[in-house]
C-alpha cells in the first residue's frame, strides 16, 4: 500500500510518502499561481504511484480564511448549531461584565446556514 500526505502552504509544499515500510519526505516551494503544480512535482520526485491513497491538507486555504482573503466563506451546520462560531467557548476574563467588544469570526453570521439533518456515526440519517 502506498500512502501520500501533502500540505500545501503559502511558502512550502510538504509531502510524506509511505510505501513498503519506508517513509520518504519531500519539501519544495509552493507555486502560488497554480498550487497543483508543486503537488504534482512533489509526487513525481517521490515516484508516487497513481493508485496511492492521498491525504491532503491545505494550510494555504486555512490561512486564506483566517486572513479574510479570497472568496466569501459560508458555514453549513446542523439545525440548532448556527451560532456555534459566534458563541465560542464563552471564556470571560471579567465574569460579571455584561458586554464585550465584538470578536472576529471566520464567517459572517449572514453566511451561516442550517440543515435539518442529524447523522449517526455510521452515516445513517436520523
Draw up the topology in text:
Layout: E1 2-8, E2 12-19, E3 22-29, H1 35-46, E4 53-57, H2 59-66, E5 75-78, H3 84-87, E6 112-115
Parallel strand pairs: 1-4, 5-6
Antiparallel strand pairs: 1-2, 2-3
What does this protein structure show overall?
The protein is an alpha/beta fold. It folds into two domains: 65 residues, Nucleotidyltransferase, domain 5, CATH 3.30.420; 41 residues, no CATH class. 19% of the residues lie in helices and 29% in strands. It contains three helices and six strands. Strands 3-2-1-4 form a four-stranded mixed beta sheet, covered by helices on one side. A two-stranded parallel sheet has the order 5-6. A hairpin with a 3-residue loop joins strand 1 and strand 2. The protein is extended. The model has no long low-confidence stretch (mean pLDDT 87).
Keywords:
3 helices; 126 residues; 4-stranded mixed β-sheet; Nucleotidyltransferase, domain 5; two-stranded parallel sheet; 2 domains; 6 strands; alpha/beta
The percentage of residues in β strands lies in 25-35%
Shape: extended
Q: CATH topology of the largest domain, anyone?
A: Nucleotidyltransferase, domain 5
| Termini Cα gap | 35 Å
How many strands?
A: 6
SSE-based structural type: alpha/beta
Overall average pLDDT: 87
In the predicted model, the low-confidence regions spanning at least 5 consecutive residues are: none
Helix content: 10-25%
Which CATH C-level class of the largest domain is it? Alpha Beta
Strand order of the largest sheet: 3-2-1-4
Query: What is the count of structural domains?
Result: 2
Provide the CATH superfamily of the largest domain: 2-keto-3-deoxy-galactonokinase, substrate binding domain
The major pleated sheet works out as:
4 strands, mixed
SSE arrangement, N to C:
EEEHEHEHE
